[in-house]
Amino acid sequence: MNLLEVQDLKVHFPVKRGMFNRAQQFVQAVDDVSFSIAPGETLGLVGESGCGKTTLGRAIVRLVEPTAGRVLFEGEDIAKMSSGELRARRRKFQMIFQDPFGSLNPRMTVEDIIGEALDIHGLAAGATARRARIADLLKAVGLDAAYAQRYPHEFSGGQRQRIGIARALAVEPKLIVCDEPVSALDVSVQAQIINLLQDLQQQHGIAYLFIAHDLAVVEHISRRVMVMYLGKVVELAEAKEIIRAPKHPYTQALISAVPEVDPASKRKRIVLPGDVPSPIQPPSGCRFHPRCPIAEKPRCECSEPELRNLSEETLVACHLAR
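Now predict its structure.
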């Protein structure tokens, strides 16, 4: 059984205008997205800025309310739960945020930042047990237990992200949504955080939804990779397969933009024409067709492709994908 199943998830934000501040249009940030994550698996999620990656991650943990669809966590639809029901189950899924500087309360010590989750869920019986648990969590992410009495401004970006990881680990979750957890860090620190996440996964069997821009990082940490464009999933496949032989034209363009270490490489850069359309008024039919080098009219303009099997391990949403 899958740990997480997302079925036809939509997140539309109203754009309110006029004298009466009525919603006249909607930003279709996430539109009919479906996928699953197995226990202990890492699913990578990539795409351009504004494609809906972060909104999808936040909707899964109910930091953003879904407009429609189902989010089944261990068979329970958390998208339909009341706040009380959700609170009892929230310890099973957590989130690591992109900005290690803005995600920690500057007025709280590290002990209180991590200990807050323990207090809410009643996971530490007394002050002594609480301090011991916080010390263990800091050690688990490579920090000294003495740091518990310090404030966030006293740490570097990499150390702050380790504190954020410790906070997520405090409630012993089964799933962590990692929203670009290394994009704001130096390259050398990025490698340390990636290795830490992998070590913690091996030790605790945690599943990750790993959101990132860097395809090299995603390939390294993920078993499968999902590609989004303008609120839609366009390809989902094994990480090695999607890097070696991408099927969707958009995925091919993303892969072609990754710098090559080998100067003799003959990989051709695919430059897509135009800009990403507005999610308020997305194109009809296939959303990628205005920029697609193989689009056929009128089919791609009129009918919207659905994710379909091209092989045993690859799903592609394209009429013409090979």
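The two ends are 31 Å apart (CA to CA).
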